[in-house]
Amino acid sequence: MEKTSIHGMWSSRTAFILAATGSAVGLGNIWRFPYLASDNGGGAFVLVYLMCIAFVGLPILIAEIMIGRHGRRSPITTLVALTRETGAAKGWISIGWIGIVAGILILSFYSVVGGWTLHYSWLYLAQLFGGARITDPGATFDALLANPWELAGWHAVFMGVTVGVVGLGVEKGLERAVRFLMPVLFLTLVALVGYGATTGHLGKAAAFLFQPDFSKINAGVMMAAMGQAFFSLSLGMCTMMTYGAYLPKDISIPKTAGIVAVADTGIALLAGLAIFPIVIGFGINPNGGGPGLIFTSLPLAFDVMSGGVIYGLLFFGLLFVAAWTSSISLLEPATAFLVERVGIARKNGSLLVAGLCWLVGLVTVFSFNIWSHIRLLDRDLMGVIELVANDTMLPLGGLLIALFAGWALKETILREQLAGMPAGLFTAWRWMVRILAPLLVLMVLLNVVL
Ligand code: TRP
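# tryptophan complex -> structure
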């Protein structure tokens, strides 16, 4: 009989693709990708990012899902079992611990930004019923950031809905949520690109995103692009390993991984094409937008376009949904671990982890107001968390995952999990996780340290 996971199983291939895409597509694509492109020279950043997705992200995505499906448990327990089975060093288990710590750090600020999307959805909903217009988006955004209570409150609401889904378990909670919400998300984004096309600035936006100025590529840009590739594909912290653990045996991992990577990258580029025509059209400098980019630029358009309030509500509502289907995947690995190791109920486990993440998230909340004067490495505290978790821990976790799959796992396991993959592709993949991906990650990480 096929080995299954005690946490439940995805009911079909579509269910897994929706869940994995739901995890991948989130604030990373729609909030973070455009602002990083804006801060790191547009096309130069996008080019490095796309290369990282193809040569580092995709092979590691396959490796993560594969390790998860072979282990069928939460990350740490899976790694313990696999090191025992293959006689590999116990040190590999650190991958799971890096993942849990990175996950807590990422969810801590992710939930704060998720709270912003709720706040903006609320503002547009209120407008529908006669509430105040957003006429000066910069001032509206600054007012939100200046108010720690409001930030912490929305942050709590966002964390609450995340626990709501994770507490219900794999089939009832995660799967039902993503099956309904993902298609709505895609359609709304396409409509916004359609609007961008009517502004007449789509060409300029495309040029900004796709004409690389090679002189702008430096160590910092490469680090940001590599970190974003991991972040956007939900890699390096065992999220995809955990989702892979619930994947039925007869489903092709390379094919599904390919679909997830293409969908994730496509949505990021679509988001860029939706946002930059508006940024350019309103005479905002597309360079250096920072984390507030979408919140300070898009409301300008929503205020003047016909049906703008509805668009505003749809956009921020959509962004919230996208963030929600991602945050559940950030909470799931640590929760599954507590359920397995400590034996506590799923509901309580998810509540415990979420509570901790909420507390850590206060650092991000205060980084915009009472602690805004604190700067480390030329960044505010939220920037420091992003640097440590996204740009360092995820690539490091990914590097170890690639090496583990490439060198430590027995070939019979690889062939069993990747059965049906054409021989040439299998060889190419193995070469990438053994040498190419680890080398590229190391180059980028060391370049910054040196
Ligand atoms: N990929 C998601 C996004 O782009 C965020 C996310 C979910 C994530 N799970 C993750 C990032 C695991 C890193 C690791 O918004």
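# post-check
Residues 74 and 340 are 7 Å apart (CA to CA).
The pocket of tryptophan is lined by residues 23-24, 26-29, 106, 231-232, 234, 237, 239, 326, 329-330, 394 (CB under 6 Å).
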